[in-house]
Amino acid sequence: MPHMEFDLTSVHIVEQASMFLIAILYCNEGISPPLVNNKIQKESQRNQEICERYEAGEGVQDLAKAFGISDKRVYQVLRDTRG
Predict the structure, then answer these.
(1) What is the pLDDT of residue 1?
(2) Which of 27, 42, 57, 68 lies 20 to 30 A from 20 at CA?
(3) Would the pTM count as exceeding 0.70?
């Protein structure tokens, strides 16, 4: 396997770490770190919006429906994002 260089930065979110490892493992399969980073950025923005809307009074079921995710995932986002 040829030597590959990656920007080694600290990762604070499990999803980011997972996507980073996937990018390393499958770099020869067409998955590139910029695409992975774009996905992480979109999820991070989505998660922030979920928290803001929840804090503004929107219900978990409404948020799940609006973002096309399960109620359980909304609770996970709230737990992981808000600490």
Answers:
(1) 43
(2) 68
(3) no
